[in-house]
Amino acid sequence: MKFEERLKNRTGTDSGFSVPDGYFERLTVEMEARLPEISIKPPTPVSRWHRVRPYVYLAAMFAGIWCMMKMFHTMTSSQSLDIDNPPALVAQAIDSHSDPLNLDSYMFSSGGSDYEVEQEVVEQYSEISDLVEDFDYTFEPEYNAIKVE
Fold this sequence. Notes:
Elements: H1 3-11, H2 23-34, H3 48-76, H4 86-95, H5 103-109, H6 114-124, H7 128-135
């Protein structure tokens, strides 16, 4: 005899659990009797706004993104530069307090140095008033009398 057959003979095949007669036939009837009454409401009609609202929100989102990108572009765009007037380029770089135009590479690529640029400015302008006219910059009154040498 095999082990499984000996085990079945010893313990039996009955699990010890049984279902009363007619249990499953009465189950659905008893469950329905225990549940509360449900009042079914007719569905509310969907208004036009509820149907269009997601598209309006989507359009508003894209409009906001467009405005944000326009603002970033406006804030980061620089004024047009006049290549014929290098002092205007220098003034614009000084006015921005940074080197967005990469002036160092501009000067070294043209074969110049800081000293040479300074000498060109000194040769072209003898008074501060000339600088004011070309750069459209307002100096404090005590600097108007300074001579550039």
